[in-house]
Amino acid sequence: MTLPLAGYTVVALEQAVAGPIATRHLADLGARVVKIERPGEGDFARHYDDAVQGLATHFVWLNRGKESLAVDLKSERGIRVVRELIARSDVFLHNTAPGAVDRLGLDADTLRAADPRLVVVNISGYGTSGPRTDRKAYDMLVQAEAGMVSVTGTPDAAAKTGVPNADIAAGLYSAMSVLSALLRRERTGEGAVVDVSMFDAAVEWMGHPLYMQLYGGRQIPRMGLSHAAIAPYDAYPTADGQILIGVQNDRGWRTLVTDVFDDPDLADDPRFVTNVERVRNRAACDAAVGGHTVRRKTAELDERLAAAGIPAAQVNGTAELVEHPQLRERDRWRTVATEAGDIHGLLPPMTYRDVELPMGPVPALGEHNDRILDELGLSAARP
């Protein structure tokens, strides 16, 4: 069956996470993605670490299925190559530093004057205007500016998320913008210019805390694994570890204490009979729940909670995640080729029933130079 984006070409002037995750999803969907890199160095994410058989974890995660074109954008010839390539493409996406594409003559206005059907996606830290437009924007910095760290962590210490949420959010909105712009182009013939900022994407994800501040007049406290508005909702001790339980309504509370804990008196305890009261008496509620969970082993308790329909989860580390039966039994692992040999990779989250999305090789730096230059009629031997 035909891949969703088969026949479309994306040129990406990208690095790190936000741009690469957007275009990796497009590549997974079948688009041809040509990644522009600096000769000799490439995307600096290639050098974050060497944990994957000598390759960097971020790079192999974010760049499979792409072609690497290493060209010097400070040279006239390099700019010519990229312009020729964009002229034959459907999408140009970049997450370069503020003003970089303008200085190269690769700004949206210039490119779309030559090709009105082109879709241009500009990923920035803080957007195209405002007092922080020219600031450097890394994930941690944007998480701080967007308030994410104020609601993440424990009461004693703020924390950023363990994965780059601001980068990933911006990348996903960028990929979505490409899909919607191409769909509109099929109907109207017109391309588009889309601006996506990491800051705007991160602020969008702050919906609940933001509206609590706007209309409740208060900052959501940092709660660790707990929840500011729901109880019980936390990790609780077991005989051999811990388990996370989240009860979101009063019926669930009654089921938990009656069917799982065999302690029906707790169901009618006035301190716990409603969620409002349970939140008000959170310490006592958590103590009551923990007093029961600690009596059973994690696996046994997990099964009892599932049988009763109580939301619960084991608190896994990455070692447990690698061996997770949900991934193994659903056959989610595949082999991905790299210059250092085959590695494991997970199928894309979007699963089509009629076609398996490809998981192409992770490119070596400049691996596709000869092929692309030949296509453009600009062979490597030409000055």
UniProtKB/TrEMBL annotation:
Keywords: Transferase. It is an enzyme of class 2 (transferase). This is Formyl-CoA transferase. InterPro entries: CoA-transferase_III_domain (IPR050483), CoA-Trfase_fam_III (IPR003673), CoA-Trfase_III_dom3_sf (IPR044855), CoA-Trfase_III_dom_1_sf (IPR023606). One of its GO terms (molecular function) is formyl-CoA transferase activity. Its EC number is 2.8.3.16. It comes from Pseudonocardia parietis. The keyword Isomerase does not apply. The lineage of its organism: Bacteria, Bacillati, Actinomycetota, Actinomycetes, Pseudonocardiales. It holds the Pfam family CoA_transf_3.
